[in-house]
Amino acid sequence: NIAMAAQMTDAHRRFLQVLMSHGIMEGSEARKLHRRCCEIHKVYYAHDKLDDFISTINSHLQPLFMQIRKGMSEDDGRAHYALVNLAETEITKMASDYTENELELFRKTMDLIILSENGFASSTDILNLADQLKTKKMKKKEAEQMLKVFVEDKWLSERNGEYTLHTRCIIEMEQYILSNYQDVARKCNICHSLAIQSQVCESCGIGMHLPCVRKYFRAQTEPRCPQCNDFWSCDIP
Questions:
Q1: What is the sign of the dihedral through the CA atoms of 152, 154, 160 and 163?
Q2: For strand 24-26 and strand 79-85, is the pairing parallel, antiparallel, or unpaired?
Q3: Is 5 among the domain residues?
């Protein structure tokens, strides 16, 4: 497969290095970076060939069990690219960065977010978990500090004291979440990727990302579920 793959150039290597240092990059930033890397290294550039450019990098990352994956921000529907390690399950990869009780706090936070109605957990609910940790209890102050770290490290996003999973976390942990939360985790009916913040059809139970809901119902006078055709009773964002 690698013999067949297009050659990695210095432009590809530079792109990979920058993405590695960021961990995740918004689509428009990735497109700018693609152009800049090609110009610096005098490599053929075509503005609509970013995905081909990335698949060349991916074919060379394969033996290293790494991959650049494309995902979507649940807030605004914008594309993002993240570098994902396929060799370890994501929670074990986090284990090299955090202590056992910090990891337990993250897992419990993730439970709250995924089991919630709207894909968010309040800081109050998360901080109440701190002294229930089995590994080693945490003071509220420590837990508050830890939440800041999870946000800085792009595992969580925070809005007005409410926490949800960061786009990077969703891209990296999609398989983990789908297999560990089989009863509740659902894929978006429109874009088929994992949906944490979503609306759910009251009749048949399918879910859709809010940006996908917006896009799908934009042209419809009466919103009907794409699956069962019943009236879509949620407010269109």
A1: negative
A2: antiparallel
A3: no
For 50-83, the pLDDT digits (tens) are: 999 999 999 999 988 899 999 999 988 999 999 9
CA distance 42 to 10: 9
The predicted-structure confidence for 126-159, as pLDDT tens digits, reads as follows 999 998 899 999 999 999 999 999 999 999 999 9
Q: Which DSSP string do the residues of 156-219 spell out, in sequence order? A: EEEETTEEEE-HHHHHHHHHHHHHHSTTT-EEBTTT-SEESSEEE-TTT--EEEHHHHHHHHTT
How many folded domains does the chain comprise? 3
The whole domain housing 160 covers 91-172
Q: Which residue has the tokens 């081909």?
A: 52
CB 146 within 8 A of CB 107: no
Running DSSP on this structure, what letter comes out for residue 62? G
